[in-house]
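Q: Predict the assembly, please.
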Amino acid sequence: MLPAHFTPVPLEKAYRLLNHGPTVIVSARHAGQSNAMSAAWACALDFAPPKVTVVLDKATRTRALVEASGLFALQLPTVPQAAMTVGIGTDSAVTEPEKLAKHGVPMFETPGLDLPLVAGCAAWLVCKLIPEPHNQQTYDLFIGEVIAAWADERVFRDGHWEFDSAPAELRTLHYVAGGQFFAIGDGVAV
Amino acid sequence: MLPAHFTPVPLEKAYRLLNHGPTVIVSARHAGQSNAMSAAWACALDFAPPKVTVVLDKATRTRALVEASGLFALQLPTVPQAAMTVGIGTDSAVTEPEKLAKHGVPMFETPGLDLPLVAGCAAWLVCKLIPEPHNQQTYDLFIGEVIAAWADERVFRDGHWEFDSAPAELRTLHYVAGGQFFAIGDGVAV
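A: Predicted assembly structure:
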C-alpha cells in the first residue's frame, strides 16, 4: 500500500528535493534481494534531466545490488527515523542479513517499479544508474538519472519545501558523525 | 587580517564540515584574478585523505580560475549572508566584473596561501583539484582533495558542530531555489 500523502514531483523540480543537503537512505533490489542503507554523501548533479551523485562503499550489499540492477532509490528520512537511519547505516546486510527487519524499516512497493521504498520519508527519487566504471572504482562515486520522484505533499508541494508550516516530524535529517544529526531548520528570508 | 575565531580543523575531521549538506561559496584565484560564487551542489567524497565534489557550470568565471590554478576553497556562508550568497550565485563576473564589491563580499587572505577566502562564514576548506577531464566536461563535476580546513570555533570545535549552543547567526544556509534557504536546525538525539 502506498503511504498517505505520497504525491508525484515533476522531474524538473526533483533537484530541489536534494538541494538542502539531507541525509538519504539508498535502496535497491536485484534477483529478489532487497536492501537499504543510509548515506550522508548524496548530492544533486544536474537539472534536466535531473541527475544525482551518491557515494557507495565497496563493502556494502546495497552497492552490489545497484551495480547488478542499474536502479536505485534515494529517500529522505525524517526526524522520528533518526535511530533507524543510524541503524541501517551502521549494520551491514553482509553480516546481518535481517538488518531491515531488525531496525523495523517500513518498506513499500509502487506499481510498475521493482524497487523497495521506505515509508515515513519526506521524499523519494528513483534513479537509473549511469555507469561510470572509473568513478565507481576509484571514488566509490555513482551517478544516476532521476526517472521518477515523489514527496509527502504535507512538506513539499508546488515545487517548494514547506518545513515551516508542516508537522515538525517531517523535517529532514542532516548527519554529522557519531549518531549526531541536525534537523533542517526554519526558512531564511532574503 | 584573519577573522576572529578562525581555528584549524584536523584534516581527518574535515568531512564533517560538509556532511550536513550546507550551501557553499566557491572561491579561486589565477594570475591575480579572484572570484567567488555560490554553489548548492557540493558534497563530501572521502574521509582520508578528505575529498569533495562540487558542480561548477561552464559559464562561470570561477570554474575557469579553478581549472587554471588547480586550487579552490569551499566556505559555508551563514544566516546573515543569505542575500550576499544569492547575489554572488546569480550575478556572474563574466558580465559583472565588480560583482564581489557590488555584493560587499568580505574577502581575506591566509598566510602562505594564494587564495581569497570569505569572512563571516562558519567553515573553510581549501582543496587541490584532482583533474578528471571526463567528469568536468560531461557533468561539470569537479573533485578536490582537502589540504587545509578551518572553522569558527564558536560553532565547530573538537570535531563537532555546536549549532545548538552557538550564536544563531552562525547557522549554515541550505538552499532550495528562488532565493529560498533554510537554516540548519536543532540537534536530534538518537
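The first strand of chain B starts at residue 6 and ends at 8. The domain at 6-183 of chain B is CATH 2.30.110.10 (Pnp Oxidase; Chain A).
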